[in-house]
Known about the structure:
With about 350 residues, this protein is of the alpha+beta class. The protein is built from ten helices and 15 strands.
Amino acid sequence: MDALELYIPKxxxxxxxxQMLSDPDTMSYNRDWDxxxxxxxxxxxxxxxxxxxxxxxxxxxxxxxxxRFYAYIQRSxxxxxxxxxxxxxxxxxxxxxxxxxxxxxxRGRGYAVPALKLLLDQAFRVYGISxxxxxxxxxxxxxxxxxxxRRAGFRELGRENGFLEMMITKEDYFREHGTxxxxxxxQRLTMRPFVPADSAGxxxxxxxxxxxxxxxxxxxxxxxxxxxxxxxxxRRSGVAVVCKQSGKLIGYILFHPLDKSIYELGWFFHxxxxxxxxxxxxxxxxxxxxxxxxxxxxxxxxxxxxxKSIGLMKKLGMQPEGVSPVFDPNGRPAQLxxxxxxxxxxxxx
Length: 349
Ligand SMILES: CC(C)(COP(=O)(O)OP(=O)(O)OC[C@H]1O[C@@H](n2cnc3c(N)ncnc32)[C@H](O)[C@@H]1OP(=O)(O)O)[C@@H](O)C(=O)NCCC(=O)NCCS
């Protein structure tokens, strides 16, 4: 699946919004509303958005967070804009209403749920807002829109005046996606959330070709900064492993939910610190926290590295679960080994 990100448009990028709003295939969902305002075309659902309106619209919509948020959905691989997402505060209900539109040529490719999740991530993690609402006119039978919202974590609130009301709260979201781990200490290590200042330390790890040999080409500093920001900080999908004695960042542990109770565990440690038991010490503590505090029931890991990573998985007590053919980062055929660990019945808590 293509990675997506949110992009806040610049004033000169608004041609894309204009293109979407004037495309009858994209706007058909907006047809036949019993309203009339200048620029609304009831027959197609399209809305005029000429450049003369851009400046006013821009100052009302951009830079108004958390009252209002607007962004394009951007495909990371080629920067293509695929649609837009937005939310705004509705004071009479004390909730945020939202919208998502995928440009018609990009529909049916599985982009909606990841795009919704990016929006929720932004809303709950970055802006800390409390709840997001959306509604759908039942007569329009927008089944795919309900379904994508449901899959992104929205609950059905009820049906009123011909509308299906859906809602997701910050608590719902964190229950489903949150890996807001507290600081965890072991004898020699501290595991803590990543912060922007970790960029250079993380680059020492992810920029090293030998460390990355079994996963991806070594990261450039730009790629590391982007990964740190969007994946590790915004999505809290990994923790920083810091040496207590020196304060140095020596590792990165990926720990994120694949499902409510199944987490993926992964690791990248600084090559100067290999073979000193640090990865084992850190992973053991994370696993303990996952089973005891988060009450998850399964942890999975996968690798093509038969020696180091499988050795670590075995030492952590993980069991082989399956093998599938993949290509290594150089495009050569390889085997991906999947290992897992179930919560022991005796786990306290
Ligand atoms: C895998 C990695 C995290 C291990 O880190 P580490 O701190 O050196 O691991 P530890 O010292 O805690 O070792 C734990 C166990 O892993 C296994 N292991 C680690 N390095 C090994 C090696 N070079 N050869 C054989 N087994 C090894 C051993 O079973 C070891 O236990 P032991 O020392 O009692 O024999 C580290 O080598 C690394 O960052 N590798 C590159 C990143 C990577 O490939 N990530 C996975 C992508 S899928």
